[in-house]
């Protein structure tokens, strides 16, 4: 049986079980293109290894590709499409876990100001304002970039200071309350946005291009990198990965935690609320977002010192 047919059937099966399966599907289709239009029995271990290895040093993506193919070949062997697995038996050590970049308030301000360079009469008249408002929304509401780009005019309920995020990562619709400052920013943008075409009426994209269509993820990523470089925002550690647009969401979570500590709030009680706000299935996923920055560590230490002193006084 041909490799492409088995991969297609496997992807269809996973999606029929209610999974998005987007990342795994992309990896499998890339593997199929790399291997060529061949029978699954003709796939050589060397070809599999070359695909997994890619170019450059071993990264976490090496292990991700390996695990995706491991699950696929388990499926293929269970159905007798393949008699054995051509995956490598020697697995390199998994690299240190990736650490997101937590933007400082100053870096976020520079990023927002950098959108001014997008003012161009030949391009979309709202390009600078669109990206300024998009970045403010990503940080101010802690949205995933895919969630922000999927917002429609009808889902941005500014009279209620509410965003309706539908079909998020875990197939859940959630309501995201927003503060007065972000509400005002979105009101200002919406007024100008509605002067652009509305191809789907109230279901048209909120963050839109000149013709009124939703922004494309790759386009947003390209412009983000240009703005980040213009704002001279770089990582200060030895990580080879530059600050990402998704790190705005991580920064939102960490900054919210720092604010709670400074306000004397019960952080442990509020963590489940933060998890719900971010659209996580459980709190362990939220903890992944909470990188221990010096600022967060300082506030946590202050809270512990207050607790310890109170215990000593009562001893």
Give your account of this protein's structure.
With 315 residues, the chain is mostly helical. The chain folds into three domains: 76 residues; 126 residues, hpI Integrase, Chain A, CATH 1.10.443.10; 68 residues. It is built from 13 helices and three strands; from the N terminus they run αααααααβββαααααα. A three-stranded antiparallel beta sheet has the order 1-2-3. β1 and β2 form a beta hairpin. The longest helix has 21 residues. The relative contact order is 0.09.
- Tell me what portion of residues adopts beta-strand conformation: under 5%
Q: What's the number of structural domains?
A: 3
**Main pleated-sheet profile:** 3 strands, antiparallel
| Number of distinct helices | 13
Number of strands: 3
Determine the structural class based on helices, strands and strand pairing. Answer: mainly alpha
**SSE run:** HHHHHHHEEEHHHHHH
Mean pLDDT: 86
CATH-assigned fold name of the largest domain: hpI Integrase, Chain A
Radius of gyration: 23 Å
CATH class of the largest domain: Mainly Alpha
CATH architecture of the largest domain: Orthogonal Bundle
Note the gap between the termini.
74 Å
> Shape, please?
globular
The stretches of 5 or more residues where confidence is low (pLDDT under 50) are 307-315
Seen as an oligomer or otherwise, the chain set is: single chain
The CATH homologous superfamily of the largest domain is named: Intergrase catalytic core
